[in-house]
Fold:
Amino acid sequence: MAEQRGKLIVVSGPSGAGKSTVIAGLMRRRAGLCFSVSATTRPPRPGETEGRDYFFVTREEFQQLVNDGALLEHAEYVGNCYGTPRDYVERKQTEGLNVLLDIEVQGARQVRARVPEAVMVFVIPPSLEELERRLRGRHTDAEEKIRSRLARARAEYREADFYDYIVINDDPETAAEELDAIITAELCRYQERKTYLTEVQEL
Structure:
């Protein structure tokens, strides 16, 4: 039996939802999972390695990737371009690895259009009041920034109707367990394992 192709899992959520903590919990409990490596036009920072942290390209090279349809999603942020290379993701999936993307709603919508079978997960806190409490608890943002993040969260909630799953991060370990269970369920879908039935029929 050939190795099962890995899934593409897209995780999004507002700032303060605790995505990084949930993802870290998932990575501890699940083997066969890898992060996608993005392409970017920004220069490498000290300690960053080509192909591990990012694929570093010129703006001209990045634009060519866009023109060729070689990116699953892309965006510009603070004067630099970032995108997810299609060939890297597909290569890892072919190797049987589940590939994880931690991207914003706009990028996730691009991925949904290009890879309809991608698994879309939206991570949120139990309430907007809890989100505000977490943002204020950081003690890193000014009042204007906090209000901006809350407004952005409300907008993302309104745009999130194309996601397959919602994980409520009240407790990071429980949320990581839910995300792990989602991946397991997706790998057990009929379409993913129907070849096992064909093997039985051939006996």
The mean pLDDT is 93. The longest helix spans residues 143-159.
